[in-house]
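subagent[fold] <- orchestrator: predict structure for attached chain, return tokens only, no commentary.
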Amino acid sequence: MAKKIAVVVRDKQAEALRMAVGLTLADDEVSVFVMDKKLEEAEGVPLNVETLGDLDARIYTNTAENSDFELMSTEDIARELVNYDVVIPY
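subagent[fold] -> orchestrator:
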């Protein structure tokens, strides 16, 4: 049975996104939550964001600077995370 996995992105953004892409290999439902700051343009980040989109992973953020992603308040994100089987903070 497929699991719902949330990856909470804070400090190690490039690594968290790379890991989120890898988690899609098991056909689990993966969502990414970019928290508190703009997503960096570090090496690999744009490709991983594009790949996650191609794989139907949802990307949310609580920061208006990340205008490419669905904006949610911190409180709404907290309420949403309880619906996941696994929450991975990064």
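orchestrator: received. Logging for downstream: The chain has one domain: 4-89. The two ends are 25 Å apart (CA to CA).
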